[in-house]
Amino acid sequence: MTADNRSKTSLFEGISAGSLEVRLAKSEDEIKAAQALRYRVFYEEMGAIPSSEMKTLKRDFDRFDEFCDHLLVLDNALPDGPDQVVGTYRLYRRSVADQNGGFYSANEFDISAIINQPGEILELGRSCVHRNYRNRATMTLLWRGNAAYVIHHKIPIMFGCASFPGSDPKQHALPLAYLYHYQLAPKYIRPVALTERYINMNTLPKNNIDQRAAIREVPPLIKGYLRLGGFIGDGGVIDTQWDSVDVSIVVKTDLVTQKYREKLT
């Protein structure tokens, strides 16, 4: 392990809950375990369409994986091996992305407003948790891990994509309109869906929106970002491979670090 990897791994010492711990992947085998978990969740549970190679290997992967840090939640009560990985997040910093062809989100959104901000920025992606571990303890560990990473790298802005299941925007008209009218990012950090992929979220007048009903239809991951003070970009994108409507998320990390800093010191 390089000195940089040892330094990054030490960030997470003491962040645990019972048999669960959070840390960065230390090896290619652990990254493959995270990819296998992603495959089970995204393709076998959620119905995304794998490539033939993914289907053969039973792993979700793309060209960005080799450049990212992979945050893991592991259950040390399980036998050593890939099944110990029960949660994961993919972390991709500007300082790395600039050397490796940019960010994943740029395939769907114009993120120039975020890129134009000074300092380090962080793209979050490929978040998933094993079905038996979808509880508060696991999610809290993932976010404590994210917070430790953000604090160490002095990251003021996180961003990424999140999805509504099902690729028909009309089915999500109420929550999409709610997000547009009540959670739209300030213009200076607002992503906008690429023109050729842009799906209008503003299809219902603001005064016609039942906020409680709309919030009930917002997926849990997006709700989690909103609770941390997150914002939504302008426009959705249909992703046929994932059978989803994607929106862009932006989170200023001051609320994240404030919430978790006391637990990290």
Overall description:
The protein has 265 residues and is α+β, with helices and mostly antiparallel strands. The chain has one domain: Gcn5-related N-acetyltransferase (GNAT) (Aminopeptidase), CATH 3.40.630. 35% of the residues lie in helices and 22% in strands. The chain contains 10 helices and 11 strands. The strands form 2 sheets. Strands 1, 2, 3, 4, 6, 7, 9, 10 and 11 form a 9-stranded mixed β-sheet that branches. Strands 5-8 form a two-stranded antiparallel sheet. The longest helix has 18 residues.
- The helix content, as a percent range, equals 25-40%
Structural class: alpha+beta
Could you give me the name of the CATH homologous superfamily? Gcn5-related N-acetyltransferase (GNAT)
> Radius of gyration over alpha carbons?
18 Å
The stretches of 5 or more residues where confidence is low (pLDDT under 50) are none
Write down the overall geometry.
Answer: globular
Provide a concise account of the structure shown.
The chain is α+β, with helices and mostly antiparallel strands and 265 residues long. The chain has ten helices and eleven strands.
Write the layout of secondary structure elements.
Layout: H1 3-10, E1 16-17, E2 20-24, H2 28-45, H3 52-57, E3 69-75, E4 85-93, H4 94-97, E5 109-110, H5 112-115, E6 121-129, H6 136-153, E7 157-165, H7 173-183, E8 192-193, H8 211-216, H9 220-227, E9 231-232, E10 237-239, E11 244-252, H10 254-264
Parallel strand pairs: 6-7
Antiparallel strand pairs: 1-2, 2-3, 3-4, 4-6, 5-8, 7-11, 9-11, 10-11
Helix pairs in contact: 6-10
